[in-house]
Write a structure and sequence with these properties.
The structure is a single chain. With 497 residues, the protein is of the alpha+beta class. The protein folds into 2 domains: 140 residues, OB fold (Dihydrolipoamide Acetyltransferase, E2P); 257 residues, BirA Bifunctional Protein, domain 2 (2-Layer Sandwich). The protein is built from 16 helices and 19 strands. The strands form 4 sheets. Strands 6, 10, 11, 14, 15, 16, 17, 18 and 19 form a 9-stranded mixed sheet that branches. Helix 8 crosses helix 16, helix 11 packs across helix 13 and helix 12 packs parallel to helix 13. The two termini are 33 Å apart.
């Protein structure tokens, strides 16, 4: 049996392979060559640098390191594929170059072992850029065999549970997370260049606030009180606007004790930013500029494909009031229903299930979810949300039943949520009280009364525009990833036990 190949079904045989690798490690340790004792290996290059700059590097000596992914033996010479973070490169190993003893040891190494090479850059007769080894060093022994070459790691659940293996054997996964890093870096540069200050706010709090969501609850032993993992960063960031920082943002982890599906994970990453003296229209301009800029940075174009759908991210994007969107896509005109009773009647006529307790604003939101959201493929700002579902947004001066709020939808998914922020402490307190009444009636997603935030507003918060964008959903869009699990290195998983 070739011990470099991993049986996929025979458990006793797999155990034999594991034992073979452990025996090899013991032999190395007994001979005083324990690879795990090595503490440092200084590299001069990586695979991409060598391949992309071959004309400059041909004939030069380099020191590289990575994981052995393939080996082809031809008597007194062998080829091996080394993989590092940036790609793969071929290594040429000859017995005459490294010596008989080192070559014999090299032939005992396994696929998956991590090794270092000093050698010279050249191109083979077949045209493949390679490094001809003059020295080789085993840097870490792989005691687990990689998935069998022709099958790879295709079990989706196993890929998420063992992301470290997924990254090794599926190079496109590594590329997704490199792009995610580029997206976050671009967002920071965009805001930093506009005078924003990056801040950090608490993850643990005595109340949950800033969004409509069910929180995770934990207990602080010293204080002997229950605390909540944050469901948003909003209320703390707006406190900083009150304090005079004027332009602030935070990129951070958010926690919501809700369902799991292709769009939702209990912990996720958001960017929220707030700017004093701005409104939601200015934030809207920034939003489309930022996302289009991200696409250009990561993909080199604003015309992308997501799950087979052609999407054009070139600004400007469509801006559509929620009531107009419902009329366009759902053929329900809430302009003809000014009371709760009239709204319930037209919704029943449209076939919606309606409760006698639902308000006009609640039904506008429900009709939007039912008839509009999944049809918004091209980037669209939906504006003018009902006040009932926007407890932190400023009312429109021309229609007190609606708010200066927008959500951005692309490919039928919400990507961003923004307001002209409510800065009237009296109005804010009344909306918190409504949320608290809903919570007391059993709605675990309703917000809590935040008396300290009301106190902050009473000191005076200038007119402010703010936004939250889901980093994960934005990454999904720009990497053509179907599920949020594909853009989280370690998504939440149910234990196997």
């Amino acid at each position: 049996m070739d011990e470099n190949r991993t049986p996929v079904t025979n458990e006793p045989e797999l155990s034999e392979v594991l034992q073979i690798r452990r025996n090899k490690l013991k032999e190395l340790q007994a001979a005083g060559r324990d690879p795990f004792e090595l503490v440092r290996f200084d590299r001069t290059s990586n695979s991409a640098e060598i391949i992309n700059n071959f004309e400059e590097m041909e004939g030069k000596e380099v020191v590289i390191a990575g994981r052995m992914m393939l080996r082809r033996e031809m008597g007194k010479a062998s080829f091996a594929d080394m993989m590092d973070r940036d790609g793969k490169i071929q290594i040429y190993v000859k017995i005459n170059d490294i010596g008989e003893e080192a070559y014999a040891e090299f032939r005992k190494w396994d696929i998956g072992d991590i090794f270092g090479v000093k050698g010279t850059v050249f191109r083979t007769r077949r045209g493949e850029i390679s490094v001809q080894a003059s020295e080789i060093t085993l840097l870490a022994k792989s005691l687990q065999p990689l998935p069998e070459k022709f099958h790879g790691l295709k079990d989706v659940e196993l890929r998420y549970r063992q992301r470290y293996v997924d990254l090794i054997v599926n190079p496109e996964v590594k590329d997704t997370f490199i792009k995610r890093s580029q997206i976050i870096r671009y967002i920071r540069e965009y805001l930093d260049n506009r005078g924003y200050i990056e801040v950090e706010t608490p993850i643990l709090g005595t109340i949950s606030g800033g969004a409509t969501a069910r929180p995770f609850i934990t207990h602080h032993n010293t204080l002997d009180i229950d605390m909540y993992l944050r469901i948003a960063t909003e209320l703390h960031l707006k406190r900083l606007i009150v304090g005079g920082l004027e332009k602030v943002y935070e990129i951070g982890r958010i926690f919501r004790n809700e369902g799991m599906d292709p769009r939702h994970n209990p912990e996720f990453t958001s960017i929220e930013w707030y700017e004093a003296y701005a409104d939601y229209r200015k934030i809207m301009d920034m939003c489309e500029e930022l996302i289009a800029g991200c696409a250009m940075k990561v993909l080199g174009t604003t015309k992308i494909t997501y799950q087979g759908q052609e999407v054009d991210l070139t600004p400007p994007w469509r801006r559509l009031p929620m009531i107009d969107a419902i009329k366009e896509y759902g053929n329900i005109d809430f302009n003809e229903a000014q009371t709760d009773e009239e709204a319930r009647a037209i919704c029943r006529a449209a076939g919606m299930e309606v409760l006698d307790t639902q308000s006009r604003g609640d039904l506008i939101a429900e009709a939007f979810d039912a008839f509009v959201e999944d049809k918004l493929i091209q980037p669209t700002f939906i504006t003018e949300y009902p006040v009932e579902i926007s407890p932190l947004a400023k009312r429109m001066p021309t229609n007190k039943a609606l708010t200066e709020r927008f959500e951005l939808f692309i490919t039928g998914r919400e990507v961003a949520n923004a307001f002209s922020e409510l800065n009237d402490p009296i109005d804010q307190k009344e909306r918190f009280e409504r949320q608290q009444d809903m919570r007391d009636s059993g709605d675990e997603e309703a917000g809590m009364m935040d008396t300290d935030f009301i106190n902050a507003l009473e000191y005076g918060m200038p007119p402010t525009g703010g936004i939250g964008i889901g980093i994960d959903r934005l990454t999904m869009l720009l990497t053509d990833s179907y599920t949020i699990r594909d853009v989280l290195l370690f998504p939440t998983m149910k234990p196997l036990d």
